[in-house]
Amino acid sequence: MSTTVSRCLKKGIHFLEAARVPEATISAEELLSYVLDRPRFSIYLDSEIEINRQIESEYETLLAKRAGRYPLQYLMRAVQFRHAILEIGEGCLIPRPETEVLAEVVLNCLGVKPLHLLDVGTGSGNIAISLAQERSEWLVTATDISTEALRYAKMNAIRNDVSDRVHFIETDLWHGVNGLVDAIVSNPPYLTDPEFDHLQPEIAFEPRIALHGGTDGFLFYQRMAREAKSILKPDGFIFFEIGAGQANKISHILETNDFCDVQISKDNCGEERIITAQLVNHGSR
Ligand code: GLN
User: pTM to 2 decimals?
Assistant: First the structure.
């Protein structure tokens, strides 16, 4: 006997609620619209449409994975980040809404003149691709140490029509990259050891190297601030996403490495999330 969209949805919500998945309704709706290949709102408009057994069983398979706290975004294999649609999977960090604010701060601060930017630890390519998409004047070099993440990033640049202005390099930070850039942008790994012990179960499915910033979370800020002069023009800018409570320490790290005019912006939850600074031009380079 076949079932209907509304019956399937109800069953899905109950199943995920019983498994104590947070926001069970959203997951059930998204997964149903994914297997039906229809927008989420249509499952309420077309709620009495019949669903065949094959689609129902595909839905049940995804629900079972979600009940095991597998991330919804990996199950749906795509996310929207600003104007870009990005394909993602286990090899890359799931782009977060707060990182959209990082891109916004960069866009507002740097205006529209032609620039060359460097995105360090690009992951799915979310930041680099958005910046190139929203500023046709900009060139972006994007690096990552993970071959797997870069596979997604390159594919995403092509899908979002910016592969001519975003160049990907597999390396640690920017080692081996030649020339100087106008700005460094990065959402580096910043979670601390204690934070790792209290994560939502979903995050365990994401790459640890994209999340863990050394014992105290500051490892990559320290490395980037210290080495910035090898890649950043005098007067160049740095834009970092930062973790909760890290602003003071990272301001200090930047100031002790010849950065000035440190500014902090909040994300949409009111958390200090973005730090911006400018390299002091000593006029000797
Ligand atoms: N914002 C991510 C989280 O809360 C961490 C991302 C990162 O380490 N850069 O899980």
Answer: 0.95
Residue among 73, 92, 185, 187 to mutate when testing ligand 1 (max atoms within 8 A of CB): 187
Residue type, 211: L
| Residue 134 banded pLDDT, cuts 50, 70, 90 | very high
The per-residue pLDDT for range 69-92, each reduced to its tens digit, is: 999 999 999 999 999 999 999 999
- Give residue ranges with CB within 6 A of ligand 1: 96, 187-191, 203, 211
Of 163, 156, 158, the residue nearest 87 (C-alpha):
156
Q: What distances in angstroms separate CA 222 from CA 115, 226, 231, 249, one per listed residue?
A: 25, 6, 15, 10
Instruction: Domains for the chain: give ranges and CATH numbers.
Output: 3-68 (1.10.8.10), 92-279 (3.40.50.150)
